[in-house]
Amino acid sequence: MRSVVAPVRAELAGAVSSPGLRDYVRLTKPGVGLLLVFVAATAAVVAGPGAWREVVLVSLAGGIACAGAGALNHYLEQDIDSVMARTRRRPLPSGRVSPGRALTMGLALLALALALSLAINGLTTLFIMLGAFAYVVVYTWWLKRRTPWNIVIGGASGSLAVLAGWAAVTGGVSVTALAMGLVVFLWTPVHFWSFAIVHREEYARAGVPMLPVVVGERATARWASLHGVLTVAVSLIGLRGVMGDVYMGTAALAGIGLIGLVTWLNIAPGRKRARVVFLGSNVYLAVLFAAMMADSLL
Fold first, then answer.
1. pLDDT given for residue 154 in this prediction
2. pLDDT for 96-123, tens place per residue?
3. Which of 36, 132, 244, 253 is the most buried (most CB within 10 A)?
4. Residue 145: helix, strand or coil by DSSP?
5. Residue 48 belongs to what domain range?
6. Do 197 and 131 share a domain, yes or no?
């Protein structure tokens, strides 16, 4: 790893400064963390509207765990990051933050998340820690460099965030929680495969076998379309009779939008369309879970 990262650090040495707060925030991958905190908080609200103490605690513990996992992801991927244009100026490959500091930060944040989650209940702690394990060890360390299906299995971390939110309020798991988690699990490949199409050349240069690198853009678009249809089906059938009209109506409209996007990508795969699908999939999940929360509170 050092032999790959060192030349990039030397090349950028004159252009980088000492680490600042922004660098440490970037290590936490706040975009990913905010999404997982949102789905966990939504699950907690659906499980028990008004249980605001549990909502706050699981959001805090889950958010800190996500931040720690993000820092460890940066630590494990510094060699990959150093050869991709979109990531080579991240804190580690640029040399602004040392690998040791990133490792220490990640482990410390996970320890803090563990302590906070124990104040909720044991099952919530289990799901939060399993989520971090799935992202750091299963996805980042084990699968990402070995199989093009890495994100399908690695996407379990999002589902575990949902289960953590539900368990924080109820102390258990239900069919509704599993259905919500399955929505996130099926949605993740749609989201990430479209992103991988956009950055296919960079992943190929770094030697990462993302699905578009291995099977091409057209086949990836077909797989994304399949997962999009399955996501919408579960969002409607799996939660029918549990959610009210606010959610069901929103889920139907949002589902039409998602299926339209993945079909559009499937017709003519390419970077521009994949970027739209990537952004649209973010909007879809945010709208879907916001509708779940609104339906439970109204």
1. 78
2. 999 999 999 999 999 999 999 999 999 9
3. 36
4. coil
5. 1-147
6. no
Distance CA 25, CA 260 (A): 35
DSSP string, 66-116: HHHHHHHHHHHTHHHHTTSTTTTTSTTTTTSS-HHHHHHHHHHHHHHHHHH
* Residue 196 amino acid letter: A
Confirm whether 159 is domain-assigned: no
Q: Which CATH number characterizes residue 5's domain?
A: 1.10.357.140
Q: What single-letter amino acid sits at 230?
A: L
The tokens describing 20, both together, are 């600042």
What confidence tens digit (pLDDT) does each residue in 207-216 have?
999 999 999 9
Last residue of a domain, one of 99, 129, 147: 147
The number of distinct structural domains making up the chain is 2
Do 178 and 141 reside in the same domain of the chain? no
Please tell me whether residues 86 and 189 are part of one structural domain.
Answer: no
Chain mean pLDDT for the chain = 93
Tell whether 119 is covered by a domain: yes
Whether pLDDT at 15 is above 60: no
Amino acid at 101: R
282 phi/psi in degrees, rounded to 5: -60, -45
On whether the CB atoms of residues 17 and 94 are closer than 8 A, the answer is no
Q: Does residue 17 carry a pLDDT above 80?
A: no
Average pLDDT over residues 22-49: 96
Q: Is residue 160 part of a domain?
A: no
User: Does 25 score more than 80 pLDDT?
Assistant: yes
Segment 71-97, tens digit of pLDDT:
999 999 999 999 999 999 999 999 999
Evaluate if pTM is beyond 0.85.
yes
The span from the CA of 186 to the CA of 39, in Å, is 14
Q: What is the CATH number of the domain that holds 209?
A: 1.20.120
Q: Which string of DSSP letters, residue by residue, matches 187-218? A: HHHHHHHHHHHHTHHHHHHHT---HHHHH-HH
Q: How far is 132 from 125, CA to CA, in rounded Å?
A: 11
Domain boundary among 132, 147, 162: 147
